[in-house]
Amino acid sequence: KVLILPIQGHGHSNLTLKNVKAKVQLLGKPMKKNGQDHMDVDKFKLHFNTDRLHIDLENLFNGDKALGDNMNAFLNENWQDILKELQPSIEDALGQTFQAIANRIFHKVLILPIQGHGHSNLTLKNVKAKVQLLGKPMKKNGQDHMDVDKFKLHFNTDRLHIDLENLFNGDKALGDNMNAFLNENWQDILKELQPSIEDALGQTFQAIANRIFHKV
């Protein structure tokens, strides 16, 4: 495997995916809650493709620029093999996270009598996120690595805009009224969902971080 490489260093890292295209498969089943019909998502699969993965790891080998430049060049020349190694784990972690988020939405917010089949758009305006990452040293194959045992994420936003299309079998008046109600009460809706979203994203990024730190 490409990622069994003697990479050592303490510094910033940047992994950039170019022209990402994602395909999502969501499968649900009907459920009853408080006498209302809801959907329970029992499968959420995510697959993505990218034209390029750019890797930049700073301060490798105690700041030895020549060794660091050579290692970054090697990683970027072999980006397809590296992505092939990491991609299944990333897709699985993101799929589980978005499944949990989807169910928290469908199980809680949709206690409202919302019915319809159409597109939806939830937009967060001016998002600011704070991340707390705590790690501890670990040994692997005689090398020092970091194990992330806590990854907390908290975000704030100035506004949540909600737009659900084709509600109530296309009844525009009812649909407009429901969207107006949701947007007037966006703070209550976000307050209900935010802890679950933050927890799920924190667990996902912790898993991704450990897959990187344990292997790279």
Structural write-up:
This protein is an alpha+beta fold and 216 residues long. The protein has one domain: Bactericidal permeability-increasing protein, domain 1 (Super Roll). It has helices spanning 65-77, 79-108, 172-184, 186-215, and strands spanning 13-18, 21-33, 36-49, 52-57, 120-125, 128-140, 143-156, 159-164. The strands form four sheets. It has a two-stranded antiparallel ribbon. Strand 2 and strand 3 form a beta hairpin. Helix 2 runs antiparallel to helix 4. It is elongated. It starts with 12 loop residues before the first strand and ends with a helix. InterPro entries: Haemolymph_juvenile_hormone-bd, To_sf. Pfam families: JHBP.
- Please trace the helix and strand order, writing H or E for each element: EEEEHHEEEEHH
* Strands ordered across the widest β-sheet: 1-4
Low-pLDDT windows of residues:
none
- CATH topology tier name: Bactericidal permeability-increasing protein, domain 1
Helix/strand layout:
Blueprint: E1 13-18, E2 21-33, E3 36-49, E4 52-57, H1 65-77, H2 79-108, E5 120-125, E6 128-140, E7 143-156, E8 159-164, H3 172-184, H4 186-215
Pfam families: JHBP
Descriptive labels:
single chain; 216 residues; alpha+beta; Bactericidal permeability-increasing protein, domain 1; two-stranded antiparallel sheet; 4 helices; 36% strand; elongated; Haemolymph_juvenile_hormone-bd
